[in-house]
Amino acid sequence: MTKTVKIIGGGLAGCEASYQLAKRNINVELYEMKPRKFSDAHHSENLAEVVCSNSFKSTLLSTASGTLKEEMKIMDSFILKVASDCSVPAGSALAVDRDKFSSEVTRRLENMKNVKIIRGEVKSIDLSEPTIIATGPLTSDTLAEEIQKLLGEEGLHFYDASSPIVDASSIDYSKTFSTSRYQKGDSDYINCPMDKVTYYKFVDELTKATRVELHNFEKSEIFEGCMPIEVMAQRGVDTLRFGPLRPVGLVDNEGKRPFAVVQLRRENAGGDMFNLVGFQTNLTFGEQKRVFSLIPALENAEFVRYGVMHRNTFINSPNHLNSDFSMKKYPLIFFAGQITGVEGYMESTMSGLVAGINMANKLMEKQKIEFNNLTITGALCNYICAKNQNFQPMNANFGILAPLERDIKGKTEKKEAYAKRAIEEMKKIMERDNEH
Questions:
Q1: Closest Cα partner for 370 from 326, 316, 340, 320?
Q2: What are phi and psi for residue 81, nearest 5 degrees?
Q3: Identical fold at 4-162+310-435 and 165-306?
Q4: Helix H or strand E encompassing 350
Q5: How distant, in Å, are the alpha carbons of 44, 260, 277, 279 from that of 184?
Q6: Span 165-306: which CATH code?
């Protein structure tokens, strides 16, 4: 019996999934609504249009993004191969010629056996048909409504407003204290006090810092949802002291109330990541690093993820998805790309790769591939399906990996050890899949 999979969305994830299925002799119908209909951010008729930065981040194995790319090479990533062929000089980063890249992705898929590209908007989902939904953060309103019906009331978010996350080991605990407000309940927060001089310097730099420019269609939606901390600070120098940095009810180790307090909240069960409470922001990543490092306890902090605020339709994956990106309730329906809650070009591509392989394995009655937390791929796959009451999109970082078997003090050496272990593990995983 001929097997056919419907893929909705011709972005990075959809194109990667198409390739993975087609190379396994499964027919693909890839639906892309362009050029009949464009989102507010897209302009090219080609598939895999890169709309923001043309950089796919670092290739160095001392970085999580470099390690992820190496894992994807082992898995035979189509998008990564095309990106390498269309690369432009960018130091240690992989950057692409946007037009050449999207044109080449389109050309190769158009000429690939088993792939049929259908131009037009998909407005409904057939639960009996093997389908991968990879419509991205700018899913059309009609299809978003269908997905909402599929998932239920709390299943879909329409913008992404997440605070920065720091590596717990990089916090200077000598400049913190742990207690709950009014000493009620457990001390689940790490409190980072600021004196008067430090606070006012922080506010001054915060209001002057460079911001990411939002698209017109994002502005009203995002600002109605929550207020960026830098906008809040512009309303008055003491506004933050009566908002997210309020010291009321907090007493430091000397029994005094600080002038202002930044609170860090545990991000995961392991306690190796903390987010900055109330720090939704539109600052550029470089400015976040510069300004938030003015907080005394975070002077040398390593940021696992920077804060973001933009239009980003994504589902409440922990409630609806398995680690292979299939739905818990409807096993023939998979999701892939940023709509799942992975953040970034390569992360989105990786999800399409995993969804494509595992959809193929399901249709061929092969065992699904279980990626574990020794790999960046597995850690992201498991992040999107793990219980999380405050689920927010996540990008590749070493903080979500399982701890190393031995303690390594040097930061670079530690990252390289993570990378080496991840690559070795990915080779074993793919070898086992090939044996079956």
A1: 326
A2: -65, -45
A3: no
A4: helix 345-363
A5: 55, 19, 18, 23
A6: 2.40.30.260
Please write the tens of the pLDDT for every residue from 342-376.
Answer: 988 999 999 999 999 999 999 999 999 999 999 99
- Cβ-based burial of 24 (10 A; exposed 0-12, middle 13-18, buried ≥19): middle
Name the phi and psi angles at 94, rounded to 5: -100, 110
Query: Dihedral of CA 43/47/51/55: which sign?
Result: negative
Sequence-ordered strand ranges (E) for 289-413: 303-305, 308-315, 333-335
Tokens of 412: 């670079």
* Residue 348: partners with Cβ closer than 8 Å, 6 or more residues away: 11, 12, 13, 136, 336, 337, 338, 342
Q: Which residues contact 181 (CB under 8 A, 6 or more apart)?
A: 248, 249, 250
Structure tokens at 6: 């419907």
334 CB-near residues (< 8 Å, 6+ apart): 131, 132, 133, 324, 325, 326, 327, 355, 358, 359
For residue 240, what are its two tokens? 């933050």
Task: Say if pTM beats, i.e. exceeds, 0.85.
Answer: no
The topology under which CATH files domain 4-162+310-435 is FAD/NAD(P)-binding domain (3.50.50)
Give the tens place of pLDDT for each residue, 157-193.
766 667 899 999 999 999 999 887 766 655 668 999 9
